[in-house]
Amino acid sequence: MPRNKEQNEEIRRQRKEMIMKGALKVYVEKGYAAAEIGDVAEQAGIARGLVYYYFKDKLTLFRELFLFMFEQSNKQVQMHFERNLPVPVMLESFVRSMYDNLMAQPDSFLFFMRMRHELHQLFTAEELNEWKWHRDNLNMIRETMQRGMDAGDIRSMSPQLLATQYWGAMMHGMMHLRQMNLELQEQGVSKTEIERMFHRDMEDAVASCIALVGPSSREKSSGDDKA
């Protein structure tokens, strides 16, 4: 029985998704220069020729992978900070979600750690000048910081600086957790013990990020005086 247009589109979507997942796995393991279409096909579990059917060459494939990852990141940040919740709650839950994703989706974290060194191999200087993935994410967080300052819920200072510091603290926490996880695995530590130590350090990392954005001691004293 012939497939209809909707069925063909669904098959196309599923195959491209398989290829994207395969390309991500290959990229975080080998980087762009060493990656081969055959590696991607093997990871995706499909024929090499099928990869070429959807992507004319390696450059096209990995450019689309990068753009897809940037788009997903922007969507995740936007959806999180558009919620109608107190700013401190959103800031803490965002850090927790990022740390949880580190364990659930380590390839995504490794992608964003690696991709900065290879952008110039996939995109022109003009394209990179217009690249705004990180800027859009920081702007969304900056706007959230401003709302929190206006409400008196977080530290009063440059919202741009605070957003940058918050992001940096979160990323340093992720790098520590990732490295700790790898070292414990190499030492043969049990999975249960690794998870216990991961969550212990995760709680400390979350607390550090939130302490960074909390009201200063001067602002707390001022609030107590008003009360």
TrEMBL record:
Keyword Lipoprotein included in the entry's annotation: no
UniProt KW keywords: DNA-binding, Transcription, Transcription regulation
A Pfam family annotated for this UniProt entry: TetR_N
Domain HTH tetR-type: 13-73
Residues in the signal sequence: none
Location of the DNA-binding region in this protein: 36-55
PANTHER family xrefs: HTH-TYPE TRANSCRIPTIONAL REGULATOR BETI, HTH-TYPE TRANSCRIPTIONAL REGULATOR RUTR
Protein name, entry field: HTH tetR-type domain-containing protein
Species name: Paenibacillus allorhizosphaerae
